[in-house]
Amino acid sequence: GDLAGLKAGGGGGCRRVKPRELRLVDDVASKCLSRPPDAQPTEAERKIWEQVNQVLMEALAILDDLQSYKGAGEEIRQAIQNPNADRVQERAWGAVVPLVGKLKKFYEFSLKLEGSLHGLLKALTSAHCSPTQHLEQEQALARQFAEILHFTLRFDELKMTNPAIQNDFSYYRRTLNRMRINNVAAEEENEVNNELANRMSLFYANATPMLKTLSDATTKFVSDNTDLPIENTTDCLCTMASVCKVMLETPEYRSRFANEDTVSFCLRVMVGVIILYDYVHPAGAFVKSSKIDMKGCIKVLKDQPQSSVEGLLNALRYTTKHLNDETTSKQIKNMLQAN
């Protein structure tokens, strides 16, 4: 099918999708958004698909690591309470060093993710066809773009609810500084040098560090590729937002993609593309003239069980750029008020 109804153009761009156009969403929906996907890369896509696939395989391991990240809260508490007990200090340091190794791995992974995003955006926004045609013709890449967004929001949801991460890292830095002052050698291979530690601190200080990385990377992609109309990028993003929203709010789809996995996948992808759009589009996602139907998208989120979408609503509240602008309607601000 042709996604004409979603094409940016007439009136509000790719805003409203009418029932008879639902079948137009079919193709993109079933191949790019259902779990497991059935989009296979074409020859032209294969090189970039394989590079991104490596990164996505690693993403699964990163999520497992983050999910099982317990932190060294108890050891740190003991060490702070017993500043002169060497054994207690050593135990805390011994607990924190491998955890910081994990945090370093997560941070370094964010840079790989940035590289993948760059490659995918280049393929999905090139000028040779419309955003809709891109999503129809390059479904395996569109799928990977969706997977990256899904990973990003999942990572940030886990990070947001894990205060141990920043606690462990700041203890590590304080202890390392003290060791430097006292000329105690730290094991070299574990040491995170100062410059890297500063970058990691900035990264983990974000409520949603991976999203921030992707938003900055998308913004940089647009400013680096001045020959590419910005609409190529924003239309690609709003088309994906529309497809997700339609899938989530239309009963026929919901029943066909019955597994909860697909629902949570679509929700995360929808929120991810909204946030990227809000960063890249000069006026953002929340203005009246926005090509994304924000009220519809927020309503879809609000219709889910609250526990499953609280992290996504928080991402819209705290990681978007334009939500608090005067141009954002009161209604949208009220819909996003934390209860």
UniProtKB/TrEMBL annotation:
It is found in: Membrane. It is a lipid-anchor. GO terms for biological process: regulation of actin filament polymerization. The keyword Manganese does not apply. It holds the Pfam family CYRIA-B_Rac1-bd. Keywords: Lipoprotein, Membrane. Its main location: membrane. InterPro entries: CYRI (IPR039789), CYRIA/CYRIB_Rac1-bd (IPR009828). One of its GO terms (molecular function) is small GTPase binding. Belongs to the CYRI family. This is CYRIA/CYRIB Rac1 binding domain-containing protein.
